[in-house]
Write a structure and sequence with these properties.
alpha+beta, 9 helices, 30% helix, elongated
């Protein structure tokens, strides 16, 4: 029985996707629910599982194709055994390629086909044979050129959908918002003392490390409560004041920067924030995070310090109106009670939409974040 492999129903906000890479080739055995192909949207990579066990009989669309919900991707011969694989592979050989394979005793399964539906051509086999023979032949040295020049090569590749979307949003934010950045610095001595004092019992009780992000998230929530405009957004001629706190936490992946959202972050404990951030980061890098988890958010925190950044001006994640940038913690001289001491200091930056947020509010927002982190009891007492 032939079973169709179709594009799953894409979220309402996603019109189409790009077929990134097939994980199986025609003629190979597949297990039910085994990932067959990866589809990339402008936010996440979706896996398409096999709807039945059998042999992948035919691939309808090649890598790079644009697909929509319900479109047929491939056909599976349900119940067929792996023994059918060589026959299926042989069926994908052109007559000329078959002759080359037989004369040179090449297993077609070892050759990656460049033709439609993975068909192996004569040139594929010739290239395969040449690549195998190349190491055995000593290269003939080329005569030295009069003027030695390094190779000036270029490689042109299309943007991934995620990278294109990031570019679009960044340009949109710069073009539509009046962005300005204010800075301050935070003494993290008190936070470090708390982390060192409670890191072992915290990890033992909650199964997650006590990091810096939970402290910064809590400090930002306290500041957002005092300055609602920083948690608001502009919609046409209206200002939308959000009476909830959905914090976006920027996560770097191999595909680009994405921003999972901690919904109702003001209701979460330190442990719940740390667990959520760790879970989001792991799934974002594995490509298993959902579009719903990347949607929305009223304020964003980004940490360039993990890469060594000492200072930066982050770009607002539109349609939000502000973003807090964390940076590298560095021991610096500070004057405390008239004495010069060495303290773990971090520069913090708030980029904000000046159409909505005045400089006074931005500066006071940062001062509130600074006060909460330098005296964490404020976050417990709400003062």
């Amino acid at each position: 029985m032939t079973v169709e492999v179709r594009v799953p129903q894409l979220p309402e906000s996603v019109a189409d996707a790009t077929l990134v890479a097939w994980r199986k080739r025609p003629g190979e055995a597949v297990a039910r629910d085994e990932n067959l192909v990866d589809l990339e949207t402008d936010k996440v990579v979706l896996e398409v599982p096999a709807p039945a066990a059998g042999v992948l009989r035919e691939i309808k669309l090649a890598d790079g194709a644009t697909v929509t919900s319900g479109q047929i991707l491939a056909l599976i011969e349900e119940g067929a055994s792996a023994a059918a694989a060589p026959a299926a592979a042989a069926a994908k050989l052109s007559p000329a390629a078959k002759r080359v394979a037989e004369e040179n005793k090449v297993d077609p399964q070892a050759v990656v086909g460049s033709g439609r539906d993975g068909r192996v051509s004569k040139s594929d086999l010739v290239n395969y044979l040449q690549a195998k023979e190349a190491p055995a032949k000593a290269p003939t040295p080329a005569p030295p050129a009069p003027l030695a020049r390094s190779a000036r090569q270029e490689q042109r590749v299309p943007m991934t959908r995620l990278r294109a979307r990031i570019a679009e949003r960044m340009v949109q934010a710069q073009a539509t918002q009046a962005l300005l950045t204010s800075f301050n610095e935070v003494d993290l001595h008190a936070v470090n003392e708390l982390r060192n004092r409670y890191k072992e019992p915290f990890e033992k009780q909650f199964g997650v490390k006590l990091g810096y992000m939970s402290f910064f998230a809590k400090a930002c929530i306290e500041a957002l409560k005092k300055f609602p405009s920083v948690n608001a957004s502009v919609d046409g001629n209206d200002i939308v004041y959000h009476e909830y706190f959905d914090l976006g936490i920027a996560v770097s992946t191999d595909r680009g920067l994405i921003v999972p959202v901690l919904r109702g972050a003001d209701q979460l404990s330190f442990a719940e924030i740390e667990k959520s951030v760790a879970n989001y980061a792991a799934r974002a890098r594995a490509g298993t995070i959902t579009i719903e988890e990347l949607t929305g958010g009223t304020f964003t925190i980004t940490n360039g310090g993990v890469f060594g950044s000492l200072l930066s001006t982050p770009i607002v994640n539109a349609p939000q109106s502000a973003i807090l940038g964390m940076h590298k913690i560095q021991d610096r001289a500070a004057v405390i009670a008239g004495q010069v001491v060495v303290r773990p200091m971090m520069y913090v930056a708030l980029t904000y939409d000046h159409r909505l947020i005045d400089g006074r509010e931005a500066v006071q927002f940062l001062v509130t974040v600074k006060q909460c982190l330098e005296d964490p009891a404020r976050m417990v007492l709400g003062v």
